[in-house]
C-alpha cells in the first residue's frame, strides 16, 4: 500500500490482506498476491483475482490485470486507474467502454475483502422431450 501512496495514488486501491507484494522501481511493474480471490463491497464494488498486476507511474496504474469493477449488475475488467489532479478529489477507472470516476475518499484505506465463493456447475444430461 505504501507503493501506491508514494506514486500519488490512494492506499485503498488494493484490499487488506495482501499475502505477497513485489515492485520493480526500474520498470514500475508490480504484483500483489492475495490469499484467495475476493470481493470488496464498499462504495464501489471491486473484485480481485489472486494476482493483481500492473505498471505504476506517478498518478497512474496502466496494464492492470486482476481487478474488476461492478456497474449495476455487470462486472467490467479495470484496464487502468489514474488520478489526473490530486486536488480534484477524483479518481478514474478505465473499464474499456468508458472511464468511471469516483471520489478519492472512497479509497483512503485498504478495504476488507471477502473471499469470493466459487460456484461449481455440474454437467447434467438433458433428456429431449417427446411431443405426441
Automatic annotation (TrEMBL):
Pfam families registered for this protein in UniProt: DUF538
Family matches, as SUPFAM superfamilies: At5g01610-like (SSF141562)
Top-rank taxon: Eukaryota
PANTHER family registered for this protein in UniProt: T31J12.3 PROTEIN-RELATED (PTHR31676), TRANSMEMBRANE PROTEIN (PTHR31676:SF110)
Protein name: Uncharacterized protein
Amino acid at each position: 500500500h505504501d507503493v501506491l501512496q508514494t506514486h500519488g495514488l490512494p492506499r485503498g486501491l488494493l484490499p487488506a490482506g495482501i499475502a505477497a507484494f513485489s515492485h520493480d522501481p526500474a520498470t514500475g511493474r508490480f504484483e500483489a498476491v492475495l490469499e484467495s480471490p475476493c470481493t470488496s463491497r464498499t462504495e464501489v464494488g471491486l473484485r480481485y483475482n489472486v494476482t493483481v498486476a500492473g505498471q505504476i507511474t506517478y498518478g497512474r496504474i496502466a496494464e492492470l490485470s486482476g481487478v474488476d469493477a461492478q456497474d449495476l449488475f455487470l462486472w467490467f475488467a479495470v484496464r487502468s486507474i489514474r488520478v489526473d489532479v490530486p486536488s480534484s478529489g477524483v479518481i478514474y477507472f478505465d473499464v474499456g467502454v468508458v472511464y468511471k470516476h469516483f471520489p478519492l475518499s472512497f479509497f483512503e484505506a485498504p478495504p476488507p475483502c471477502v473471499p469470493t465463493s466459487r460456484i461449481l456447475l455440474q454437467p447434467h444430461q438433458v433428456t429431449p422431450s417427446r411431443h405426441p
